[in-house]
Amino acid sequence: MRLSRQPLTQLTLFLALTGLLTSSSFPHPQEDTSEEIVANLAAGRVLIAVFKDGIAVGTIENKFESSSEIPLIVPMNSERVGVLLGAVDWFSPSTRTSIADLPRELPHLRYHPAYAATSENKPDAPHLVQPPANGATAADIEQTSLGVMSRLSEVSSNIHGHVDVKPDEPLTELVLVDYLEAYGPEAWLMTYHIDQQPERGDFWVTQVKRPRYTQLWPPDKTAPHLLLEVDYPSIPEKSTLLSLLTSNSPQLASVRSSTAMSASCDALTSNPLNLKTSDLALPCLRSALDALASPTSAKEILALITPEGSIRWIIAPPPDTRPRMKPAQPLPDENAPTLQRPTDAPTLNKPTKPN
């Protein structure tokens, strides 16, 4: 989905009551009023399956508009991936200038000190559902999420028209999934909302609120350990992949085409899923993605994160066919350090004995 343009006299970014970003137009500050900023949306499903021997992360695009993009699975390092949803690709169509390409920037984003927080003094900081015995915290998750917040704040500071949006409608969402040696599998959802205050006339000040944190995995001890799904835009009445598989929906009738595939789907939908191995349940997940994508020729991606610290593509990301634009500022150096801890960095979690 794309934030399409309205006449400049409206100076308004509209968000539909269903939660779908639909259109926008606003001037870039300190530039000619014919300047516009447009945002393409990453829309679709994010599926997370935690197995005994790894984590599968899949995405499938929602092609409800021709310019919507598939939510990309972005490797942060060998043990963590991120998926951005919502307004992620900001640019100026008149000057063909890229304002922010969040999926490409994600591994290198830094949090701004003004947004920094710790779990001890900020109630909205991420807290682990099941804290590990070694005392590990979610500080690295917070650093990444605040880095995205800082970047969104830079972009949204250019929005000075009124945005008609419900308080619970996010502008952007971030899913982080990893398999950490000291903690195990984890998955987080961060949602970013905006706040606007009128300053004078039709001039509004737009701010990005601190992200809301939801730890998707591990769930509470009493919660079911099943296939997880995040959708953008959120459609309450939409059937999840889990419900489609368990109800033998005609939409996925082809998936259970054999005894082996039926057993694979039973493994994928069983509780607890994390006691099953990936080789048993992955065939059903891949076939289900194919079945959902087929009617609209939607793009799909599927990756497996292993406990050994590797990311294996089951369905590789599609080629980037977006028009090339010059960046408004230099893009991050691909070799620049990231917020993520290198997999070969020394650790005190399991000290080794000297030879």
Describe the structure.
The chain is α+β, with helices and mostly antiparallel strands. The chain has a single domain (4-320), classed as Glutamine Phosphoribosylpyrophosphate, subunit 1, domain 1. It has helices at 102-105, 139-156, 241-246, 259-269, 278-293; strands at residues 4-5, 13-15, 21-24, 38-42, 44-51, 54-61, 73-77, 80-92, 97-101, 163-164, 172-180, 184-192, 194-200, 203-208, 212-217, 228-232, 300-306, 310-315, 326-327. The radius of gyration is 21 Å and the shape is globular. The termini are far apart.
The CATH superfamily is: Aminohydrolase, N-terminal nucleophile (Ntn) domain
The separation of the N and C termini measures 58 Å
Query: Mind telling me the C-alpha Rg?
Result: 21 Å
Spans of at least 5 consecutive residues with low confidence:
1-34, 117-121, 333-355
Q: Residue share in helices?
A: 10-25%
The count of strands amounts to: 19
Give the overall shape: globular
N-to-C SSE series?
EEEEEEEEEHHEEEEEEEHHHEEE
Give the number of domains.
Answer: 1
Q: Could you give a short account of the major beta sheet? A: 8 strands, mixed
Strand content: 25-35%
